[in-house]
Design goal:
The chain is of the alpha+beta class and 243 residues long. The chain contains eight helices and nine strands. Strands 3-2-5-6 form a four-stranded antiparallel beta sheet. Strand 8 and strand 9 form a beta hairpin.
Length: 243
């Protein structure tokens, strides 16, 4: 971008902000068309369905888009307030799925995935299964938006990485794989291979999630969001046969 355009954007932003208009301040990202969230919505394959984003306004604002055939989505969040909750709903094969994710202000213009793993991260932050927390998107878990901080997302990411470390090592992937923000394709490689190899069964009644070997069906781990704080117990590596 040349200097003239940068100065033009800054002046335009200052003018728009000064005008007020009742719609809140206009950011440089919005002027440049970068006020978006994008990523991959998948659960072993691309989700055939939609991604919906709900912001932290009162009352909350919601926008939705169709997921592309390759699992990619891009959604405009201009005029919305962070942090954001994302919901991917649709089908993977013959199975109906719903997964949640989250984004903070720094994620605007960048990648945020929606997968079974991000769903577990949000469950741990909210201390209950995400689908219970967001059964009514107009009235989500009490004070969850205060919990959706960069620090808590980092903590949830570290907990998940530690839990899945044996699987990640078995597949020869980086131990610091970023399940929330790393760009990936639904091509059965990289992070997609981890999603392929692990089946996560959520029980909203008992508020737990069971991790199973996607090939043998053996249970290799269990997660209880009510007690996950501070826990980093890895999956049972003895049950990784076939992965």
């Amino acid at each position: 971008m040349n200097l003239f355009r940068i100065l033009s954007v800054v002046l335009m932003t200052s003018w728009l902000t000064g005008c007020g208009g009742g719609g809140g301040a206009t950011t440089i990202r919005e002027v440049l068309g970068l006020a978006t969230l994008s990523g991959t919505a998948a659960g072993g394959a691309a989700i055939v369905g939609t991604v919906q984003v709900t912001d932290s306004s009162t009352p909350p604002k919601t926008k939705g888009v169709l997921i592309d055939a390759d699992g990619k989505y891009t959604i405009d969040v201009s005029g919305m307030t962070s942090p954001f909750v994302l919901k991917a709903h649709g089908t993977v094969g013959n199975t109906t799925v719903t997964y949640y994710s989250a984004a903070v202000l720094a994620d605007v213009g960048n990648t945020v995935n929606v997968t079974p793993f991000t769903d577990i991260m949000i469950s741990n932050i909210s201390a209950q299964m995400a689908q219970n927390c967001f059964a009514d998107m107009a009235h989500p878990c009490i004070s969850l938006k205060e919990k959706l901080t960069p620090e808590n997302l980092v903590k949830a990411q570290a907990d998940l990485q530690a839990k899945l470390l044996p699987v990640v090592r078995n597949l020869g992937l980086s131990e610091s794989i970023d399940f929330l923000r790393a760009s990936f394709a639904t091509d059965h490689t990289g992070m997609d291979s981890v999603i392929d190899m692990l089946k996560i069964e959520v029980d909203p009644v008992t508020n737990t999630a069971v991790l199973r070997n996607g090939i043998t069906g053996d249970e290799i781990g269990r997660m209880d969001p009510k007690t996950e704080v501070g826990r980093r117990d890895p999956v049972d590596s003895s049950k990784l046969t076939g992965i």
